[in-house]
Amino acid sequence: MDDLTETAGAQVLPRDTGSADSRPPEIPANKPRSRRRENNKFSSIAISTAAIVVGVVLWQVIGQFLVGNSLFLATPLQTLHGIGSMWSAGTLQKDLLVSGEEFILGFIIGSALGIAIGTIIAKNRVMKRILSPYISGFYATPIIALAPILILWFGLGISSKILVVISLVIFPQIISTEAGIRTTDETLQDVARSYGASTLQVFEKVEIWWSLPYVLAGLRLGVGRALIGVVVGELFGANAGLGFAINNAQSEFNMPQLFAGVAIFAIAGIVFTYLLTVLERVLAPWATNRP
How high is the pLDDT of residue 197? Predict the structure, then answer.
């Protein structure tokens, strides 16, 4: 059964007929295509890096020469100074730990539940009919309406913020996972069954691998939504965290520290999204390798 996962990408070669002239066909080297893919990867990184540098330079120019007032727009240098002052005061370390814990726990729990529920509704039509109205309803409900309720129920501690993050992460993951499993190529399933694969083996050898890019896409969506959940939860009620620090900076008209909090969230989003992109290249190279 281990050969089933290789069937989709394998090249079928003609059998040896036993004649003296029969020889295996030459398979063209794949080096030019591999080299082109590597060049595309490095050029993509270079373009993204250049875009970030240009954006930061424009931000500095606009803030320093066009706006010229840190009460309205802090420049990148002022933002770095704000980060340094928060670090020196010892508040940034505490806020990073609190927000990081809320993000990581909420993201992991929400993603795991989303993958599990998405798999269940993809394999069971009855469960899909039962859960679909709830999934559609809660997915469409703005988090700004749910966050106050969760904070009132579970208090100002970390539990309410984790639940806010989970509520934002879980539903895109359910939808992505369910779509991936439901759209599995029937031809691949039939090939697996023709080898004598059981229903469980078809799921393990075909459906999981087919749906993997969908699951990873759901994880990438979940990163941004999890960060939003952290901010929203801490803005509505918290005594620590980056969202709490942003709220305090806003009330004190401390624009450098406000932009510092926003910049940290933006950097976290870029880093985690990039790590998931790398993970997709490792786990599902067929979904990312293009000529």
Answer: 84
